[in-house]
Amino acid sequence: TVLSNETRTVVSPGRIELGVGAVDTVGDHAARYGDTALVVATEQIFEFHGDTVVDRLDAAGVEAVVYTDVRPDPTVENIEAAHDLYERNDCDLIVTLGGGSSIDTGKGVGILAANDGSIRDFGVDRAGYEGVPNPSPPLIAVNTTAGTGSEATRSVVVSDESTSTKFLIVSANVVPDVAIEDPELTVSLPKSHTAFTGIDALTHAIEAYVSVKSYSVPDGYAEQAMERIARSLPVAWANGDNLDARADVMVGQLQAGQAFTNASVALVHGLARPLGAQLHIPHGLANGLILPYVVDFSSMAAPEKYAEIARILGVADAHTPTREAADAAAEGVLRLCRDVDLTGYLDDFGEVPSRDDYLSVVDEMTQDAIDSGSPDNNPRKPTRDEIADLYTTIYDDA
Ligand code: NAD
């Protein structure tokens, strides 16, 4: 896409602190913004790294009010309870510690602190895209997974337990002011979540790259993200202490977040939210189950892009004819998923329903996927029946 006759808005966190030791900057950044920080984390991640963050806030003279009840795939109730704590303690900034679940909870608190209404009101199904009127209070995201890229995105994903669905909020008003990416914090990430979050990032990069909304800026982020994740995710997975590999994947997932938030996600994400909600599996695992099938389904519609993906994933080279290379892209994705034993974790993390029970909700999932709007960004737009077929095939092969 050329930009000589059109304009684009590129969103980005205000500042990004990168590298081993980057977490040391959290206190000084917080002190630029206020006196009392709501620190939002899961219990598990707070046990690992909570003292590191609270000590640095303390040293900078910033009081920490701590909320550690964030559930992975955070809920409406998480956001409401954390917001309540924020207001009761007169907080003036938010510090999230953790991956997408902590960051999205913090973003949700920011929305409620600056706007009237309940969090459900800001979902894209009700408010549309860019439907959050006022900017959030300052938000510093200390990232610990690699990952969702949420520290660089305008998205918030919230689980609504009353309907067993996840809804999406999208607004430039929630992009964090500071993103802190310290690879040392990801060393404690277990093998399973290293695989899930890394494949989530790969999915972001691929979806942004092939999206009908992509253009030069997100394409550049996406290409680099795919390269980093392909070369370093298997290394970080096999040896979690390898800081070079952890750092490479962390930068890759950041770039993948920057790619998709400035282009869009596409069919995989449309399918993944309903699937994840039904099977109760982590978001990255849901993406990874779907990704090879959607790449296979879509490659004919954007052969140049999929051929490049295949080259980056090492299943084609510069001499492979475009069509042949595009056809190989799905194999490249599958190989990377196998390298990190992605589906090996399905029994540990999922509650897989019987085939009959699953088939009984395929129609509902298909409608949910269509309603998300994401399939419209796919280079090959699926029909309703094709989406239902993809859901059935994914279950049968898993
Ligand atoms: P997560 O934040 O849910 O964390 C997964 C698990 O790993 C949790 O139990 C957590 O406590 C633990 N954990 C996290 N970091 C750890 C560490 N360094 N050491 C040990 N344990 C650690 O995982 P995630 O994949 O980063 O986030 C998933 C959520 O993000 C989902 O709700 C998903 O829908 C959402 N998401 C948001 C965006 C966005 O742009 N807002 C994008 C993609 C996904």
TrEMBL record:
Domain of life: Archaea
Pfam families, per database record: ADH_Fe_C, Fe-ADH
Stored InterPro entries: ADH_Fe/GldA, ADH_Fe_C, ADH_Fe_CS, Alcohol_dehydrogenase_Fe
Keywords: NAD, Oxidoreductase
Domain Fe-containing alcohol dehydrogenase-like C-terminal: from-to ranges: 194-394
GO MF, one annotated term: alcohol dehydrogenase (NAD+) activity
Domain Alcohol dehydrogenase iron-type/glycerol dehydrogenase GldA per the UniProt entry, residue ranges: 13-183
CDD domains referenced in this protein's UniProt entry, alphabetically: Fe-ADH-like
Family: Belongs to the iron-containing alcohol dehydrogenase family.
Name recorded for this polypeptide: Iron-containing alcohol dehydrogenase
Organism: Haloplanus rubicundus
Species lineage: Archaea, Methanobacteriati, Methanobacteriota, Stenosarchaea group, Halobacteria
